[in-house]
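Thread: adenosine-5'-triphosphate complex, take 2
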Amino acid sequence: MKINPIGQRLTLAEALIRSSPLTQSQGRIVAVDQNGIALSGFRPPLALRDRVATTDRSGTTIIAEVVGTRDGNARVAVLGDADGLSEGSTARATATEGLGISQAWLGRVLDPMGNPLDGQPKPPPALHRCPTRRQPPAPGLRQRLGPAVCLGVRALDCFCTMREGQRLGLFAASGVGKSTLLASLARSGDFDVTVVGLIGERGREVREFVEDDLGPAGLARSVVICATSDAAAAVRREAAFAAVTVAEHFRDQGQRVLLLLDSVTRFAQACREIGLAAGEPPATRGYPPSVFRELPALLERAGPGGPGAGSITALITVLVEGDDHDEPVADSVRGILDGHVVLDRRIAEGGRFPAIDVLRSLSRTVPGCQTAEQAALVTQARRLLALRDEVADLVRLGAYRAGTDADTDRALRAAPRIEAMLSQKKTEASSMEEAFAALARAVSDEPA
Ligand SMILES: Nc1ncnc2c1ncn2[C@@H]1O[C@H](COP(=O)(O)OP(=O)(O)OP(=O)(O)O)[C@@H](O)[C@H]1O
Ligand SMILES: [Mg+2]
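Output below.
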């Protein structure tokens, strides 16, 4: 990344002035309750997203971020454990440091502040610090999407072909295989760097993911940023922004980055907790309005970079609560991303994994990246599956007679072959050519 040396010196000077004890604004904790923590007495007053440092009873420094201000009081969300904080403690404004991301972050499992979670020493911080809140590249300067990328999963590569720099959502109810599918993509060889954000998910899954799914070779070119479900809301929210910031760092060095976020729903829930504690009114399904500003602020940062930069290709899981695909977070995320993959519980219960419902899944950029033959094969396969679904009830009741309609007969012969081609073991990787060759065999009317 090119940094203007004068600009960088100014930023450093500014940071030094802001962090100098003489210029630091000081105040006091005036309330600690179930709604959060309120501070008062800061001159100049605190502004939104300012960071403050205070100490708990044991003398440990605790950092918090301003999430709202009213009547001279600032509400903060603690980046860590708030136990031991008491009314009357002094707090001081601190510089928002940003993350000192470097090559040494590759191969590491870190929390969103860059502290190690893998038992190894903290990576040495880089001189240049990346702020975790940034604007995406200007729309007019952003490069266009690149060529098709191979994810190694036949159902995705054929029916939802992704392009470099695209953002795709994996939508499903709980336990249908989102995390497993995301894990199987982590080793995709088509990228230089993989950044994984595990947000608000189970602690048990982190080690399994790192050791079994990434493996030593995959981990060596990956950075895993993690905040499990028991972490404070501000930490879970920060984990998503930190993961995107790490991906941007490598993208700005010209690398092709794969960003995997599991899950954006937990990020939205963390934003909801913070928003409600800051006094925002609950709107749609209890989500305050700020959640629907944070989602695009996070997700728009993935994608192609500006001139000379690489790209961030992103796959993001969305937990669809109660199988309602129109619930507000799913709806909002679907509108921001460039495509959605739907995983269906009935398909998973039938034992076909990945349980992708190809007829309900869509990549908005497919027209620009498939050959005419590939597009024809996919259209034919979709038509055969749709025809099979149309008569499925009749077939189940024994009310459809073979020979009634030639197209339907063909669909009933081909559908099991297409289903078999869509089924894939987690550890089995498939090239783009193999995927389309398998699809061609499945739709051809010759016996397999
Ligand atoms: N490819 C697969 N092959 C075999 N079984 C699978 C596969 N994918 C998922 N499963 C089964 O489904 C279960 C749930 O998968 P997973 O944890 O990936 O779901 P999830 O959608 O991430 O759930 P949650 O929303 O609760 O996090 C797994 O424990 C496994 O039994
Ligand atoms: Mg999961």
